[in-house]
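=== Structure Prediction Worksheet ===
Name of assembly: unnamed complex
Input type: mixed (protein and possibly other molecules)
Chain count: two
Listed entries:
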Amino acid sequence: MKKFQQALMTGVSYMLPLIVFSGMTIALTGMLSQSGTLDTPAVATLNGFAWTMINLIPAIFAAYMAYSIGDKAALIPGFIGGYIAAHPPVENTSASGFLGAIMAGFLAGYAVLYLRKVKVPDFLDSIRKTLFIPVLTGWGIYLIMAYPVALVVGALNDLIISNLITLSEAPQYAFLLGGILSAMCAFDMGGPIGKIAITFVFAVWNDPSGLGFVVNAAVFPGIMVPALSVGIASLIAREKYTEDEIRLAPASILSGLVGITESTLPYAFRDPIRIIGANMIGAFVGGAIMMGLGISTAGVSGVFGMPMASNIGLFILAILVGTAISVSLQIAVKKPVDRTVQAEEGDDADFDFEITM
Amino acid sequence: MKIVAVTACATGVAHTFMAKRAIEDAAKKRGHQIKVETQGATGIENALTRSDIEEADILILATDIKLAKMERFEGVKKVTIPVATVIKSANSVIKKIEEKLQ
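=== Predicted Assembly ===
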């Protein structure tokens, strides 16, 4: 399980630059041609190219997931499987999307790990490395991904996406979905729950309906509100925050602006329920406004998503409202800090590990 | 004690470096020498050299992802823990290592 989780994180880690590149490029070229500032064939070509790159994301993800499990030899089998997840080769089957890419990375990784352990006579060993592993796992992955996975998971993926599109188009549900995604990010500030929300955004990122960009906007409050609001609240209500927290405030606000939620962690460790509670409520409202109003953006990382937003004013409003709610809640519920007692080191010793060679 | 460590998280922007700072502070506070390599978004920084690794009493791998160049650490005494544990409880990590190495 731990290996699987590590594989998922490795996949995310290596695909991120591609997501950033293609998202930013699509947003910028879209903006240039729609506003008529630079509506040239070259810009349109660049936009098309960025979409080609977006469709490679599942392949890169699966490749590095497989690499994490089965090392170098698993990279290409994973790529093959992930490519099929986005480009089903067989007629009447559908893209299995991110779900399929996860399966491809997992299967390719373990297949290679297993094949590397099979004992073969010495004279066959070099053939195994150069021929057996890439060809056999490649064929195996092709057969599995192109037929059963593309049929079953492909259909499931279609169902999920079409339902999500319906949800996101009906304002009475859209606000709920946006609120939940956003609150998930605020809950653990860059941790696994937020990653699930972000992974969901990436999973629908390359959907032609543009759904990916709508849910992408919805998670922005979840990413930005926590760090912004702890920073602002600690400057306003100084008596309720430690000196360290007040000193961290400018850095925290800056992190919030560029979308690094993690700088909220020191505040949350000291007073988890009040800080995380306030942040989640603020983020929920922000995400709900964002998605309820159908705002979309292809930008990533805090304020860099702002210029690409479909409605910049409302985008900023959603984040400001979320932040204001979280700041007021924190000031209302937090207790004054007792400055006479030296704060104990918030060290939680409830874990264990083994020393290995 | 001489400690070497490698930190890495999925995004490679924040947690990786927060863990580096946390483990450095905790080790220095308890009078140990420490060197921390980060495997962040741009790649390896402050790389551990062969002699760093040979001289170290313990290697701490604080990671959520597959680390690069793991072959350097074969046969080295090491502990593997999630990045979040180091950020949250660096002092306890160092204390537990001291106890276990006794």
